[in-house]
Automatic annotation (TrEMBL):
It comes from the Bacteria. The chain crosses the membrane at residues 7-29. InterPro entries: Mce/MlaD. Pfam families: MlaD. Keywords: Membrane, Transmembrane, Transmembrane helix. This is MCE family protein. Residues 41-112 form the Mce/MlaD domain.
């Protein structure tokens, strides 16, 4: 009995020591580890390849793991993903989450985009129930590479179908014949250009000569223009000076003539007011005198000189 009691006592002591060792190990692990913070992410896309325990990275650095994946009951279009991230990870305002797929088929939650100096993401006091439906902060999402491809897959397939139809129409028998004709014409044109190669080379050489001659002519015209400017500067300027002197002399003569006319103006006015009427009266008197002389001459011619001194003879009276 005593031996059995000793075995029980030893076993009990050993169990107690093992329990203490386990508790000490857990305490050391917690002491050396870091605390975590939980966040919710609502993805409006497929989360294929993502599972509980999948890694969470921040700018490629492992920072946590996925704790829970479930459909969001209020709106089944969204998938709620609960992640636990190391408390030291800077989950600040501007941080976004996306799903990053790999060739092995597994996916990870990728976080990035925090702004320097921004406040940490937390549940606000106002509209807390609406913005934090499960009492943990919510990280907004952005479409990753695979998510964008999956969401745009229908449009991509539709565009590929349209492109295929257009290519089919473009490569019809009629269009193929037209393309073949265009290629034949291009070949003939290439052959013709190859045959005319020497003539084209000669034409290009003549064109170079013509361009060079045009350049020489332009240079000669420039020199002629410079010579013309020199002639104008040397010969025309003295002639213009002489012409200016002649114009000044003519102006002085015109001013002298105007002064003379001004001085003679009073005499001209007196002549026009006094002498001209007297001359008119004299002319009228001369006309009267001339008429009298004409009458006398006519009388002498008809009756003789005696008619000027004797009385005019009356005609003889004859009775009936």
């Amino acid at each position: 009995m005593e031996t059995r009691s000793n075995h029980v006592l030893v076993g009990t002591v050993v169990l107690i020591l093992l329990a203490v060792l386990a508790l000490f190990t857990v305490w050391i692990a917690r002491l050396g580890g870091t605390s975590e913070k939980e966040y919710d992410i609502f993805f409006r896309q497929s989360v294929d390849g993502l599972a509980k325990g999948s890694a969470v990275t921040y700018s490629g650095v492992p920072s946590g793991q996925v704790k829970e994946i479930a459909l969001w009951r209020p709106d089944p279009q969204y998938v709620r993903v609960r992640v636990a991230v190391n408390e030291q990870t800077p989950i600040l305002q501007g941080t976004t989450a996306s799903i990053s797929a790999s060739f092995t088929g597994t996916s990870t939650v990728a976080l990035d985009g925090a702004r320097k100096g921004a406040q940490p993401i937390a549940c606000p006091e106002e509209n807390r129930r609406q913005l934090c439906p499960y009492d943990v902060p919510v990280i907004p999402t952005k479409q990753g590479g695979i998510g964008a491809i999956l969401n745009s897959a229908p449009q991509l397939l539709e565009r590929l179908s349209t492109l295929t139809e257009r290519l089919t129409g473009l490569l019809s028998d009629r269009n193929q014949a037209s393309i073949a004709g265009i290629l034949d014409n291009t070949n003939r044109l290439s052959d013709a250009l190859a045959d005319r190669g020497p003539e084209i080379a000669a034409t290009l050489a003549q064109t170079r000569v013509a361009i060079q001659q045009a350049g020489d002519a332009a240079q000669s015209i420039g020199q002629l223009a410079q010579t013309t400017n020199g002639v104008l500067a040397e010969d025309v300027k003295p002639a213009m000076a002489n012409l200016n002197k002649a114009i000044l002399s003519a102006q002085e003569s015109a001013e002298t003539l105007n002064a003379a006319v001004g001085d003679a103006r009073p005499g001209l006015q007196a002549f026009s007011k006094q002498t001209v009427p007297e001359v008119g009266q004299l002319v009228r008197d001369l006309r009267v005198t001339a008429a009298s002389f004409a009458s006398i001459a006519e009388k002498i011619d008809q009756q003789g000189a005696g008619s000027l001194v004797g009385q005019q003879k009356l005609p003889d009276y004859k009775g009936k």
